[in-house]
Amino acid sequence: MKFPCGGIMKGTPSYLKYGIVISISTAAVLAILVLVVGKSMLIAWRDGQRAGVEEGQVSGEYIEGSLESEERGGDEYADPLITFVRPTAPFRMETPFMPAVNANDPIYPENYPATEGAQEEKRVINLVLFCDQISESCYEAAKVVRNIIDNVREQVEAHRERPSLRLVWKDFPSPLMVDSREAAVAARCAQQQRKFWEFQERVGINRAGKSYDIIINELGLEEDIFNICIQQQSEAQSLINQGIQEAQELEVRITPTLFVGPYRVEGIVSYEEVERLVTLAGQ
Fold it and tell me: Each residue of 68-107: pLDDT tens digit?
């Protein structure tokens, strides 16, 4: 039997023949190496996933596919200067890491003190929301949590055995959108005049572009004080950076992210899910 390549090779100089043979041999060796390495990586990944699933089953409930923001909803972004190391195991809803509540954090209801005595603290469940002022999903999440708090507050007044709830805001503006950081600064300046939540709600409703001048007039803010805060920015920027740093330490990577006691919710925040986690956290 005569092969087509035999005719091609017949008139080819010997040094080219050796070159072709060496090239084919090198390609074959590289292909074998790729197959071997790929198989080893696949086995290692499969073992890691299996170990993660077993750990989740032993330690408690976990969210399947919560690392995929498309399934959970919300706004995901990555800071090009920050590298997040994601776990290989499925992310568990219950986490040992809980955000701290700082004296300068915006708190709803506003008359709720940032720190309580040891006896009272046991009766409080913190709902800590890492969010972006101009995000529609963050606006909806804050509205859901505030509605739950308002409903529970009436029950607490009637039945003192139920724990109280408080919403704590943590700034996590998108590094990819200039307006996001500007809105966070403006909200912190409104906080100086005890109008943070009113400002946050107006910005959420008017994402289409109502100017801050109109909003501060509607809220009755002192324009001179507000403008000085906007121009100086140092204090506001410091508070915003504090929230960003805490988000990075807790591996928050999507807005909104809501912590309900020891539990976290990523992406879409529903009334039913938060209410269920409030019940679990209060047990």
Answer: 344 445 555 444 433 333 333 334 444 556 898 999 999 9
85 shares its domain with 38: no
Q: Are 204 and 138 in contact (CB under 8 A)?
A: yes
Residues 34 and 157 in one domain: no
Integer Cα distance of 275 and 272 in angstroms: 5
> What is the count of structural domains for the chain?
2
| Angstrom distance (rounded) from CA 90 to CA 47 | 13
Asked whether 85 and 280 are in contact (CB, 8 A), the reply is no
* Any domain includes 64: no
Contacts of 273 (CB under 8 A, 6+ apart): 265
Residues 75 and 12 in one domain: no
**Which residues span the domain enclosing 142?**
69-281
Burial letters for 182-213: b for 16+ Cβ neighbours within 10 Å, e otherwise? Answer: bbbbbbbbbbbbebbbbbbbbbbeeeeeeebe
143 with 28, same domain: the answer is: no
In this structure, are residues 129 and 258 in contact, taking their beta carbons and an 8 Å threshold?
Answer: yes
- Please tell me the pTM assigned to this model: 0.65
Cα-based distances in Å from 122 to 76, 110, 127, 261:
34, 19, 14, 11
Q: How many CA atoms lie within 13 A of 233 on its CB side?
A: 10
